[in-house]
Amino acid sequence: MRSAPPARLLRGALTAVLALGLSATVLAQPSVAADGWDRCPDNAVCGFSQPEYQGDMIVIRKPMLSLGSWDNRIRSYVVKLSGYSSAVCLHPEPGLDPEGATHSYFSESLDESSHPELDRAVSSVDIGPEADDFCGSESRYPMLWDVVKKRPTTLPATGAFGDMDRDGHADVVSRNMVGQLWTTHAYTSPGRTVLVGGGWDTMTKLTRHGDFDGDLNEDVLARDKAGVLWLYPGNGKGWFKPRVKIGGGWNTMRDLAAAGDLTGDGKADLLASDSAGVLWTYPGNGKGWFGARKQIGGGWKSINELVGAGDMNSDKKADLVARDTAGKLWLYPGNGRGWFGARKLIGTGGWNGHKELAGLGDVTGDGRPDLVAHAWGSYVGEGHFLLRVYPGTADGRLQAPRDLAQVRSTHFVF
Known about the structure:
This protein has 414 residues and is an all-beta fold. Helix content is 1%, strand content 33%. The protein is built from one helix and 28 strands. The strands form seven sheets. It has a five-stranded antiparallel beta sheet, with no helix packed on it. A four-stranded antiparallel beta sheet has the order 11-10-9-28, with no helix packed on it. Strand 13 and strand 14 form a beta hairpin. The radius of gyration is 24 Å and the shape is elongated. The chain starts with 23 loop residues before the first strand and ends with a strand. Mean pLDDT is 88; it is low at 1-22.
């Protein structure tokens, strides 16, 4: 029987933080075996190729979808993190798949642990404060609560967006900490959560609002780091057909918002505000790209969030919701000709407390479009925020919010 690990190896149970930087480095075994705790650098989880914290060492500083050459090699590990929580989650499957995963706060030699089945069977690792999700699906995508209701079958075109799989329920699209994109459906929906794919952390802007290419499926627009705008045409099943390049030069835009049919021609349009504070309409042609842009006006530097929320005031025209730098929320009623009427105050203040705002159409099933907010607050566990739904009213105002999901702080949901 091997001797118990030194007491200092258990100090990893005290605290944790997700240290951003290189995901992993590998260090060869020294000629004289050293204490595993001493070999492992601070703010990391270290895996060892031998029991009792010996052998070659991999240094893990952030969640890893795959361990590469270290797949199925880890036999013991040290948790040497600092911060609020020393959580680590070991997954036998790549991609942080929760099936068979084990959550721990302690440094352990796997062969003598309570989960020896993970000895030489770890393929991906989650670390840091948010690994406190106990290795569940919520670490990869939002788990929607029962606020989402089936929409009326008579929902007008101005409200028929936000449904990725055409099952009559609003869906969320989310990008997680490792660049995966997911489409998530409510518990009451017959649809299923779908992994769209990886590599979405190369995108600096993501927006959606209905059909842009004329096939009646919900699409997504994405701008990459080089400033290229792409259309990802939906297939009506929760993921996409091959993407289409719209064009370059979009890094000059501070914000983009897919806002539905603003021009009244039955085709979805795009709004963009540039660095000078000018707002532009890019009229959609119904085939997946846009005609010549038209200037709406200047002075939009005071606006830090644009949301295509649908027909908020029941006049059968697409509207815009905007948040200003003072934290006020405004409704800009569309006139059906590509610009807006006099704005209306629908939130007197405090809206800068929300990280992001999104329009998903009718979430609550009452036939009116709603607003979804990424809501911060001390009532949410560390490393998390709430998705909250503000139900819309017939005259463009918002009702008291309802909780939609608890989401990891590293997720972007739209």
